[in-house]
Amino acid sequence: MLTIAKYPQEILRKKADEVSRFDAELRKLASDMAEIMYADDGIGLAAPQVSKTIRLVVVGKADKKSYQAYVNPEITFSSTDLTTTDEGCLSLPGIFGLVKRPKKIHLNYQNLDGQRCSEKIKGMLAVVLQHEIDHLQGVLFIDRAEKITQGRDILDKIRNGSQQ
């Protein structure tokens, strides 16, 4: 059973490796990630968050049952028009912060069968994907937050504990 890696676990700061095998194991991992994401009331999850250093992201759909998998995602365009959202993360429970991100992105990725795909994405999905793709680079939303809106005390305790 997969578990969510919690900050400050080192795995969350590692760069993920490109996926080259598109098989039943990858599909099972994506399915398991979606299951744990929904169980924790999440809307997106990156493989490093379940201690897998591969470039795989799953994002939930409106029905809260199905999901979209993005393998080896790469943002090829980001709009200069920005939006600020109050982000949270399953790996940083109880912590939220204001993050400014592009409103629109162009994304190249592969599906679970290895087929190359390209999409223009805007709105909340663009924000969620940027957040999850950051995880693949070892970047957390707290690194980009202009302001922590909730859980500053939790974050301070973690940071002070990890420096001892």
Written description of the protein model:
- With 164 residues, the protein is α+β, with helices and mostly antiparallel strands.
- The longest helix is centred in the first third of the chain and has 16 residues, at 24-39.
- Strand 4 (82-88) and strand 5 (96-102) form a beta hairpin.
- The radius of gyration is 15 Å and the shape is globular.
- It has 4 helices and 8 strands, in the order αβββββββααβα.
- It has a single domain, classed as Peptide Deformylase (Alpha-Beta Complex), CATH 3.90.45.
- The strands form 2 sheets. Strands 1-2-3-6-7 form a 5-stranded antiparallel sheet.
Q: What fold name goes in the CATH topology slot?
A: Peptide Deformylase
CATH superfamily: Peptide deformylase
Radius of gyration: 15 Å
Number of helices: 4
Number of domains: 1
Range of strand content: 25-35%
Helix content: 25-40%
- CATH first level: which class? Alpha Beta
The CATH level-2 architecture is identified as Alpha-Beta Complex
Instruction: Please state the overall shape, judged from the principal axes of the Cα atoms.
Output: globular
Low-confidence stretches: none
Main beta sheet strand tally, sense and closure: 5 strands, antiparallel
Distance between the termini: 31 Å
Which structural category do the helix and sheet elements fall into?
A: alpha+beta
Strand arrangement, major sheet: 1-2-3-6-7
- Overall mean pLDDT stands at 96
Query: What is the succession of H and E elements?
Result: HEEEEEEEHHEH
Number of strands: 8
